[in-house]
Design brief:
The chain is mainly α. It has eleven helices and no strands. It has one domain. It starts with a helix and ends with a helix.
Length: about 270
């Protein structure tokens, strides 16, 4: 066997070894992703009571859309009466800490490229997105709140206390907002949300989208300690699913089509 034939065989063997190694690395990465997702799914399931308490704090305590059971709401109404300016409301702050830390951790994994938003979304589904407004009230002190003239003073004070905690933990607060934006875009892409909510959010994003993108870009660079231009580009493209399309080949919503979807959805809702 001449040298050329030997070199050809060795080259082919090296190529095969390289392919096998790549497949092994890909399989290992997938296994790590599945392990992470399973861990976060368990943490989310275990924090359901804290989630209910967080929504209780962010909404009017007698709100129709509270997610806590009647028994838990009755308990929280009693705890609320013990609120004092001289000591922290530990039950509320603990729930805010546990839920916001979980959301922040998941956001970091997405920004680092360890998890994809399409894989994370099923952990929460539309359950979290239907509470996105009260969540944003806690996370963004400038976000407009609904006005309840008969809301208890203690309840308002507890909400302010939770907002203050999040202001002091600004990194967690930012990443929670980023994750909400990414999850909302995925919910829109999958058509998991009612057209009226999609339309209302898309109108608001005409004014807020630039701020959202800047926050995302800054956080990706910070988390990865590098420009990460490809990651930023992919995530920005994903966010466009929830905004009105400017150019026909981009991701985004068609305003006329969304109006038609809303009309059909309303007819179904009213059983017409």
């Amino acid at each position: 066997m001449n040298n050329e034939a030997t070199m050809s065989i060795l080259t082919a063997m090296l190529v095969l070894v390289g392919i096998v190694q790549l497949k092994m690395l890909s399989s290992q990465k997938k296994q790590n992703q599945l392990s992470l997702l399973q861990d976060y799914r368990k943490r989310w399931f275990d924090s359901k009571e804290h989630w209910s308490k967080l929504i209780y704090v962010s909404r009017f305590n007698e709100d129709y859309y509270q997610v806590a059971s009647e028994k838990l709401i009755a308990e929280l109404n009693e705890l609320q009466k013990e609120q004092s300016m001289s000591r922290p409301t530990t039950w509320a702050l603990e729930s805010v800490r546990i839920v916001s830390s979980l959301l922040s951790d998941i956001c970091i994994r997405i920004l680092q490229g360890h998890l994809e938003i399409k894989d994370v979304y099923p952990i929460f589904g539309s359950e979290l997105l239907r509470q996105s407004r009260p969540l944003r009230v806690l996370l963004d002190v400038y976000y407009p709140e609904d006005y309840y003239p008969y809301e208890d003073r203690q309840h308002v004070c507890i909400r302010r206390e939770a907002q203050t905690w999040l202001v002091y933990h600004s990194g967690i607060r930012r990443r929670c907002l980023i994750l909400l934006d990414l999850l909302w875009a995925e919910g829109v892409r999958l058509d998991d949300l009612c057209p009226s909510d999609i339309k209302s959010a898309a109108k608001a994003k005409k004014h807020s989208h630039e701020k959202v993108v800047k926050r995302l870009e800054k956080e990706v660079k910070s988390v990865n300690n590098s420009p990460s231009l490809l990651k930023i580009r992919c995530l920005k493209s994903h966010l466009r699913h929830s905004t009105y399309r400017k150019i026909f080949w981009e991701n985004g919503l068609d305003e006329v089509e969304l109006d038609e979807r809303e009309e059909k959805w309303t007819k179904v809702l009213l059983h017409k």
